[in-house]
């Protein structure tokens, strides 16, 4: 705009100087002055507009930089959240696998324990028999056996041999009078 102003001003000045009448000269000078004032006003407005555009551009650039920084921050936060979600998903998958393995393994362990218990229970009588058979039993001498059998026969309630079904009117051996035993003075005679 300033490039156009200079030729217009020069043209007006030349016209003013070459004109014949002073009224015309004053009108032309007045028009040139008004034109110059308008041009100055326009230049002033243009400068203000350029300043506003420059400050608006600066604000726009600053706002763009802030928004980009916010986007970078949000992107980082999203990436952190994605990593956390991925980590939690991996933990959940590991727990799911562990539970599935446990579900498959527990019945097998229970069956194995049951079978081992059955084997132990079935071998227990054989172990007892083996222990009984492997013991060394000293044979009793004849005198001890005879005394044991006689005591059982004479007792009112025999332990080794069941009582014979006898006639209640018949006397049993303990019912007969017995002589006192010199070996056992504490026994009583009937």
Q: Which helices and strands, and how do they pair?
A:
Layout: H1 2-18, H2 22-134, H3 142-154
Gross morphology is: rod-shaped
Rg, Cα atoms, Å: 66 Å
Largest sheet: number of strands, sense, barrel closure:
none
* H/E topology pattern: HHH
**Overall strand count:** 0
Helical proportion, percent range: over 70%
Please state the average pLDDT score: 81
Low-confidence stretches: none
Strand content: under 5%
Alpha-beta content class: mainly alpha
| End-to-end distance | 162 Å
Report what the structure shows:
With 190 residues, the protein is mainly α. It has helices spanning 2-18, 22-134, 142-154. It has a domain at 2-113. The protein has three helices and no strands. Helix 1 (2-18) packs antiparallel against helix 2 (22-134). The longest helix is centred in the middle third of the chain and has 113 residues, at 22-134. It is rod-shaped, with a radius of gyration of 66 Å. It starts with a helix and ends in a 36-residue tail after the last helix. The mean pLDDT is 81.
What's a quick, concise take on this entry?
The protein has helices at residues 2-18, 22-134, 142-154. The protein has 190 residues and is mostly helical. The longest helix is centred in the middle third of the chain and has 113 residues, at 22-134.
